[in-house]
Structure formats: structure tokens, C-alpha cells
Amino acid sequence: MPARRFFCEGALRAGESVALDERDAHKILHVLRLRDGDAIDVVDASGQAFAACVRVAGAGVRAELASALERATAATLRVDLAQGIPKGPKMDFVIEKAAELGAGAILPFYSERCAVRDLGGSKLERWRRLAKSAAAQSGRRDVPAVCEPVDFASLIEGFADYDAVAMPWEEAPHQTLREALPALLGAGGRVLVVVGPEGGFSAEEAARAVERGARLLWLGERILRSETAGLAVLAVAGYLRDL
Predict the structure, then answer these.
(1) pTM for the full model?
(2) Which end of the chain is more exposed for a tag (fewer CB within 10 A), N or C?
């Protein structure tokens, strides 16, 4: 029951009773309408999941951890998403769906054609809450990190931390995803998918990314929106990973 999964800080053990935060308590009592003794899952900071039950005390909720659940097999492939920040609420959608599709981390960035330049801390905190909620809803045992926004120059400096970098661009050589993506994903490791904002990447930005080791990807004849392109690649990568 993925919608009844909640995340807690620190390392937990079976037999413990842990307090859930106010947002989780509100969801349990007023959204899911659970009662004392109802079953939930709790996941600690290490990704260990526990079968637990609800203990209600006034407006607060605790979780009694009954037993540790079997650990999931460690993934051999991690795909992160770097997203050029789009206008309005579109980034909320990207964060939520990227978390559902298994992104290891989400890296917002500013580039030449970004209309958004200054977000403020409250926006970042909202994105992190969305990532946590989506991870719980989709049954993940981890919450993808949502990093502080950086400029494009700083982003490409971090390409060296990845085994492969894929950059969808409408002017990339016309090689299908079926042909290009399996080779990029290789035998596993860390892969970064870099998606531009609404205006896309300039030719200069694409050239700088290629100099740093990025591989340009063509997503087909249809030009996808900024908030769609990265999710499409994550979905295909998930399919290939699970073969």
C-alpha cells in the first residue's frame, strides 16, 4: 500500500516507537483517515522499510515498528535529472513525476534561455516536500535529493561525476532513442539527463556540454516540452533497466 508509506530521519530498529512529523500526522488522520492500530510502512534514512502500526495521541501520531521488511536489491543504474527551470508551476510537475519515475536526484539549473532567475528558499523547500510525497506515494524506499539551483557553467563542471551524460536537444544527430540510450546506460553506474528550459539550449551551450562529455540525444520528430522531455527519457531508461 504505497500511499501508506512514510519516511523518518535516522536509523530505526524493529520494536521502536517513532513520532511522525506534523504533515504526515495530518495525512494519516485527515486524508487517509487511519485509526489507531492501522498498518503503515515506515522507511528510515538508510532505506530500510518497516511494517508498522499507527498510534494516535491527540493531534500527534506515532508509528510502532513491528518488523523490518526485506531490503530491495541495490540498483546497478542510477539516473539523475538536471532540469532547466521552467516558468510557473511546471517545475512542481517535473519534480513530482521524476520522483515517481525513479530519478536518483533532481538538479535544477539556470541557463541562457531560462525566464526564471531567482526562486527563493521557499520554492526549494516546496520541491523537496513534493519529492518526498511522490516517493512515498509511488512506493520508493528513498527520497530523491532536490539540489540547490546552479547556473549552467556550474552544472557542466559536475559532468565528471557521472559515467554518462545525455542531453536531449532538437538539433542533435537523428539517432533514435532505441539506438542511442542503451549504449549510454551501459552496464550501470551514474547517468545524468540534462534538459533545457522552454527555450531550449543555445548552440553554444550544447557545444560546451559536448566538450565536457555530454552525448546529444534526439527524441524524434516531435519537439517535446521542457517538462515532458526529461520524463520521457526517465521512462525509457526505467524500461531498459528492468529488462
Answers:
(1) 0.82
(2) C
